[in-house]
Specification:
This protein is an alpha+beta fold. The protein has 3 domains: 35 residues, no CATH class; 204 residues, no CATH class; 207 residues, no CATH class. The chain is 36% helix and 19% strand. It is built from 17 helices and 19 strands. The radius of gyration is 28 Å and the shape is elongated. The chain starts with 31 loop residues before the first strand and ends in a 5-residue tail after the last helix.
């Protein structure tokens, strides 16, 4: 009869199954699980498969992390006051474990109580002893990675700034972390690019009880934080946690004062355009952009004065709808508009006069882009002969929705809404960690999946189809051998990713 390396015969119950091990409560734990039989064969399962992992794609995350130097540079933004003679997990390893865990879908710290035994995750983190056989304490042997409590102390290190330093040994420097996210994001842009669009948006992050900074937001109808994000394409540049008792654009000028100089240093020939919804059409933002030579294209909330200026275009749209048999009709118009008090000058406004079965639907944007300026920068986006106003609204402003898609991926695929600590500072740290994990995944998609069917996939789909691969891990003195599932359906994709991400080893 054929046997495994552990002496267990195929098709037969392990010898220890008759007496399962005791649990901490003094009760026996079931070790063999019986299922519906397959004809004459019994179907059984146990947890004796050896060093297995469900996250074979963690190797790709390690590859991207090494190429970006992400965890290494992020570790440089922390002050480590621990006694190094007793340290088994460096700050870089702790951060890599947290970032890769988030990317793999393990957003809760409690998940790491079991993940710390995963040898492939230990390999991805960069542990020299991925099996954890050389741990100092006997209770930790076989657990190469840090547990939930250690990772929690890393995230709560901000509280050490308040004078509680006897157990807050790893202290982050917030300004350096903020600058690192911006710097890594800017480095993804080509120095020769001619146009950079900054998409600003805010979203709600529901609270988890009586947390610091708790306020009720009327629009979102719940108690929440109101983080501010800025993306350049699909790359995050800014992630600022704020309380919800403020205007949605609060902090945008301060963010621009840091983002714009970094962009101009990286891309000196690029025109910078700030894009956002009507919540960002504020005098402070527009005036700052005008003074600094930055373009903007912002939504503008409608009012009776604007609608009156659009009456002629609405009449043309109604006529067009009647002639087309009742189909939705649109007409665009160029306007000049200034508020009575809040604006310092008249500005260019584009109005969309839309008429449908539900009635009039006028919409407006305000911009300082010159006539024909957008077409000169991006002629490939505007084929044919369309009106300038239509191009500006439909082909440029409506692309703003992509920023909302990036935020959805961060919140839904990477669970960036798990800001459940009591303090604002540590929740800001968690938001940054999720933003860095997003950058890690976005770079994997951009560099590794370019030219494949997953080049435009969501991060959730990338994780499911690329990272979630069953793997057996063997560790010897000379190498780590990872044997992936033979039935994995995306083997050709893996081969192409390897050629794109590891050309030197091809």
């Amino acid at each position: 009869m054929r046997t495994t390396s552990g002496g267990v015969r195929w098709g037969m119950q392990p010898t220890n199954a008759a007496k399962p091990p005791l649990t901490g409560a003094g009760e026996y734990r079931q070790s063999v699980f019986e299922f519906q039989g397959l004809y004459q064969r019994r179907v059984q399962a146990d947890f004796g498969g050896g060093h297995l992992s469900s996250d074979g794609g963690a190797l790709w995350l390690r590859q991207i992390d090494e190429q970006l130097g992400l965890s290494r540079q992020l570790a440089g933004c922390f002050r480590d006051h621990r006694h190094q003679d007793y340290v088994e997990h460096s700050v870089r390893e702790l951060l890599a474990q947290r970032l890769i865990g988030i990317a793999l879908g393990y957003e809760d710290l409690n998940d790491h109580q079991q993940l710390r035994r995963d040898p492939l995750l230990a390999v991805a983190v960069g542990k020299a002893d991925p099996l954890g056989l050389d741990r100092r304490l006997k209770r930790d042997q076989g657990r190469a990675l840090a547990g939930a409590s250690t990772l929690n102390r890393l995230e709560l290190g901000h509280q050490g700034l308040e004078g509680i330093t006897h157990f807050r040994k790893i202290v982050p420097e917030a300004a350096r972390i903020e600058a690192l996210l911006l710097g890594l994001g800017v480095q993804t842009l080509s120095p020769d690019c001619r146009l950079v669009v900054l998409d600003f948006d805010a979203t709600d992050d529901p609270l988890h009880g009586h947390q610091e900074g708790k306020f009720f937001h009327g629009y979102y109808d719940n108690y929440c934080y109101l983080p501010l994000f800025c993306f350049a394409g699909e790359v995050p540049l800014w992630a600022q946690l704020r309380t919800s008792d403020r205007d949605g654009c609060d902090g945008t000028v301060q963010a621009l004062e840091k983002i714009v100089p970094a962009l101009r240093q990286r891309c000196p020939q690029a025109r910078i355009i700030v894009r956002g919804d009507s919540g960002f059409a504020r005098e402070s933002i527009m005036a700052w952009c005008e003074q600094q030579g930055v373009s903007y294209c912002l939504g503008l909330a409608r009012n009776s004065r604007l609608e009156k200026l659009l009456e002629q275009a609405l009449a043309a749209a109604r006529e067009k709808r009647i002639l087309s048999g009742g189909a939705t009709a649109r007409h665009f118009a160029e306007l000049e508009y200034r508020t009575h008090k809040s604006w310092s000058r008249a500005r260019r406004v584009v109005g969309k006069a839309e008429v449908s079965a539900k009635g009039n639907n006028p919409r407006f944007i305000v911009t300082n882009l010159p006539l024909g300026g957008l077409e000169a920068l991006r002629p490939e986006d505007h084929p044919g002969r369309f009106e300038e106003a239509r191009r500006l609204y439909e082909a440029f402003y409506c692309e703003r929705g992509e920023a909302e898609n990036q935020i959805k991926q961060m919140m839904l695929d990477l669970q960036a809404d798990r800001l459940s600590t009591h303090w604002m500072a540590s929740n800001q740290m968690r938001l940054w960690l999720h933003s860095f994990a997003y950058l890690l995944m976005e770079r994997l998609r951009h560099k590794g999946l370019q030219g494949t069917s997953l080049a435009r996939a969501t991060l959730g789909q990338v994780r499911l189809k690329v990272l979630k691969v069953a793997a057996w891990v063997g560790v010897s003195v000379r190498r780590v051998w990872v044997r992936l599932c033979s039935a994995y359906p995306w083997q050709d994709l893996w081969a192409q990713m390897h050629r794109q991400l590891c050309p030197a080893s091809g």
